[in-house]
Amino acid sequence: MSALELAGKALQAAEGDEALALVQSERSGMARFAGSEVHQPTLIENETVELQVVREGRLGIASGNRTDDDGLRALAARAVEAAENAPPDPDFAGLAPPAEPARVEGYDSDAAALGAEDQARLAATAIDASKLDLYGFVTSGVTGIAIASTTGLAVEQTMTDVAALALAAVDGASGYAERTGWRLEDVDPAAAAVEANEKAALTRGAVELEPGSYPAVLEAPAFAELLAYFSYDAFGALGLIEERSYAFDKLGQPVFDERFSLADDALDPRGLPKAFDFEGVPRQRVELVQEGVLRGVLWDRTSAKRAGGGQQTTGHAPPSSLRHWGPLPIALSVAGGEADSPEQLAELIGDGIYVTRLHYLSIVDPREGIVTGMTRDGTFRIRGGKIAEPLVNLRFTVSVPQLLAELPGLTREPVLINQNAYYDERYPTGLLSPAVATARFDVTGVGSGPGT
Amino acid sequence: MAAALGAGASYADARVVVRRSQVVGTRNGRVERLDDQETEGIGVRVLVGGAWGFACDRRLDNEGAEAAARKAAAFAKAAPGGHSRELAALEPARGEFNTPFERDPLSVSVAEKVDLCLRAEEALAREDVKVTSASVRAQREHKVFVSSDGATAEHQLVECGGGIDAMAARDGIAQIRSYPSAHGGSSSQAGWEYVESLGLEREAPRVGEQAAQLLRAEPCPSVVTTVVIDDEQMALQVHESVGHPTELDRVYGTEAAYAGTSFVKPGDLGSLRYGSEHMNITADSTTPGGLGTFGFDDEGVPAGREPIVREGILSGFLTSRETAARIGSGSGGSMRADSWSRMPLVRMTNLHLEPGEGSLDELIAGVDDGVFLQTNKSWSIDDKRLNFQFGTQIAWEIKDGKLGRMLRDATYTGQTPVFWGSLDAVGGRDQWQLHGLTNCGKGQPGQHAHVSHGASPARFRNVQVGFKP
Fold it and tell me: Residues 300-359, chain B: which have Cβ within 8 Å of A?
């Protein structure tokens, strides 16, 4: 039975109520390795059904993974019970009408065919290519999402994703690289391992750095993670409506460097394409920042209705379990610049620091866009435009708007950075980001050295 | 078990988990979340030729169990690396554990939960408070564990919790206050009586008022000073700077690529000075109401109580049977998986800062010039758990042993053993509170652990507070 057929069957179990059924399926494998051996190989196969029942403006939601007739009847009973107990919601925009999402790429039969032995074999290619102990994973998955509703909505998508993460590390040295894509041919685990080894070899003998404000080059994984944390609050409509996000009262203003343009574009085949959101609404490309001017934020049907004034959804509804976050970016895309490489960015700033990857970020102040975290697995001093001595991991506490206010350069070709930590149901997301040079990166402390 | 052993496993275990969880959340007077989730399945872990394999199946029948076992064995056989693993010896578990409770939180109607949230929210409302929110959660889990060693353990676990938040904004400043904890409130392994005991509606006026007052408060200055930290933030301090670094899988590097490793090394056991003599940390999977309380862990190891830091000296690790055998000490007892579809990992159970003596007022009275920090707002710590920076929702200056003006945007930072070395007092047992959090992330694929921490307020000298770029 297809996911869409199962969604239709779940609707029937709702027995005449206004309802929406969302089916998510996953078949995945992850060969996770540490010390150059696979130590946590995990195979997952699951299918869940979420049923949303509407009674007189009251919405009840229930989900489960029992998909036989008894399971769906019990699911419907729980959703109905929830709806009957819920007060009417004046902001409920009703179930989405029928839609014809754009046809997107994002499915590769070669990736879909990968099984446990293949994932183990790909992990072996990375391990064999590494001179240092290797830590990380190779994973691939086939995920499906289908939504059907009594309004006549019926949409379905099957996606593949493949990712390899490589941390080459020993005591006192570590380097990091990753590869992500929806096509098998785009992910070379051995190449990631080699890159991680090359980076690690440069990190021995790391020294401390005096806290202060430095120009910096952030490689794509570092910039992508920082931007993602900033964007959860800054570019969602709920934060705007509630006056707690950086974007509040700044729409239309030139707030960043004119070299910086940012969109959320789930339709881009260079990313991990998505045709529709969790309300079944077709996803749209949204220009968030154009040449430094803050242009827009992301909307779903609920936030759009609450805002009024004819605001429309942009197709960014989150899963119901994340509804308290409001609409979320899932496919951020930063426009490339003119530099050929991160090394060329180092030449642009002359003197500063070079950051490969970040660790454990936290939002200190969403209104001002202040984020703290650590660097890791490849932090260096830049002197005379060249990468110089390695540095220990640095504590940074940055105002992201200040960091984006002056960007001397960006690399030409954005690369896809994995944004999925594989919690809960698999829903592959990534961020297209170049490496950037910034005039200001605030170092506020020093931490441990590189390596294990 | 038969299918796993037939496929070449020298050891195998299986967990059947059936879980129902419910979240009711309201925001600005409307229902924002009303989720009711059920999930069930079986996860099978095997050891073949010294290599682990794990697979799962949502079918709770022989076909599903056998398929999971065969797939797990096939994955283990294909796994590259020079595998050699031993497990600490263990008497096969046989027993059951049921959460004691008075009122099943899942039997409480959704209407009652919505009403509680809306009443609490109403009491939060103040001028300048732009967002009021309240949530409650309930969960019931039935888990059966068997192993090829002959272990059989059955659990019926019930937990619930709740919390409230008020977000105020004006003139470009946004501030938040929460109760009883930030990030979704606090939970306990208990019945609905726990949620009722939190007094969400009772505490809401204070929470709303403080959120509004913070808009007019001065920013916390940047200074090295004495800090008194409340029990809620201390719970997180224990979690991040003691719990994670003493997970023995991290110490051995198996989390290096994601969560990180540890500044603590295996040879540090019994000798590393982790903190001052006032520092006593205990791992206790028997704590009543703890989210990490059970009869047996997910390897069938019986629950127990073990010192991790005693009078400032590292005295234990959080272990699995594999890591315990590797270090030659202990027998595991900290292996937990967040669902049937995930492999167990070394996780915190309940990790406590043992109480000292005296009240919060007495801790503050011992400070001439300092800051009192309350309720977590932001948190970050490096991959070896050495450099940390935490922010709190609210702070007060301390002058001459008394609380002074309110401060906003407070942060404090330090290096783990230096910071704990500056601990000079821990509040007494009557100040000791148990906080349950449900968002501890670790592993790939990711897993959320539910853990509890008991702590009293504590006082630290010479701490850097108040950085802002």
Answer: 341-343, 345
Question: Complex ipTM, two decimals?
Answer: 0.96
Contact B194, B106 (CB under 8 A): no
C-alpha angle B454-B455-B459 in degrees, rounded to nearest 5: 170
The sign of the torsion formed by the CA atoms of B184, B43, B15, A77 equals positive
Q: Which residues contact B125 (CB under 8 A, 6 or more apart)?
A: B132, B208
Q: Report pLDDT digits (tens) over A334-383.
A: 999 999 999 999 999 999 999 999 999 999 999 999 999 999 999 999 99
Q: Using CA atoms, how far apart are residues B281 and B306, in angstroms rounded to an integer?
A: 9
Q: Tell whether B76 lies on the interface with A, counting CB pairs under 8 A.
A: yes
Helices (H), B226-385: 231-238, 248-251, 321-327, 360-365
| CATH top-level class of A3-201 | alpha beta
Q: Of A34, A85, A324, which is closest to B253 when you measure between CB atoms? A: A34
- CA–CA distance, B4 with B149 (Å, rounded to integer): 13
Cβ-defined contact of B444 to A137 (cutoff 8 Å): yes
- Confidence band of B468 (pLDDT split at 50, 70, 90): low
CA dihedral A295, A300, A301, A307 (to 10 degrees): -40
CA dist A419 and B373 (Å) reads 33
CB contact under 8 A, B382 and A324: no
B263 vs A48: CB contact, 8 Å cut-off? no
Contact flag A86-B34 (C-beta cutoff 8 Å): yes
CB contact under 8 A, A37 and B342: no
Instruction: Say which amino acid occupies A67.
Output: T
DSSP state letters, B199-253? -HHHHHHHHHHHHHHHTTSEEPP-EEEEEEE-HHHHHHHHIIIIIGGGBHHHHTT
User: B 126-165 residues with CB below 8 A of A?
Assistant: 130-131, 133, 135
Determine, for residues B413 and A445 on separate chains, whether the beta-carbon distance falls below 8 Å.
Answer: yes
Mean pLDDT, residues B62-78: 97
Segment 204-263 of chain B within 8 Å of chain A by CB: 253-258, 260-261, 263
- Interchain proximity A448–B343, CB inside 8 Å: no
The vertex-A114 CA angle with A108 and A116, nearest 5°, equals 155
Could you tell me the two tokens for B338?
């967040």
Find, among B332, B263, B348, the residue nearest to B296 by Cα. B332
- Residue B80: per-residue pLDDT: 85
Sketch out chain B's domains with CATH numbers.
Answer: 2-216 (3.30.2290.10), 219-465 (no CATH)
Chain B, nearest residue to A126 by Cα: B80
Q: Do B409 and A365 touch (CB under 8 A)?
A: yes
**Residues found in chain B:** 469
Q: What angle do CA B195, A238, A426 make, to 5 degrees?
A: 75
Give the one of A86, A120, A320 whose C-beta lies nearest to B79's C-beta: A120
Average pLDDT, chain A: 96
- Average pLDDT on B456-465 reads 98
- For chain A, the domains span 3-201, 212-446
Measured in whole angstroms, how far is the alpha carbon of residue A155 from the centre of its chain? 23
**CA A370 to CA B259: how far, in whole Å?**
22
C-alpha–C-alpha distance, residues A126 and B354, integer Å: 45
Q: Is A222 on the interface with B (CB under 8 A)?
A: no
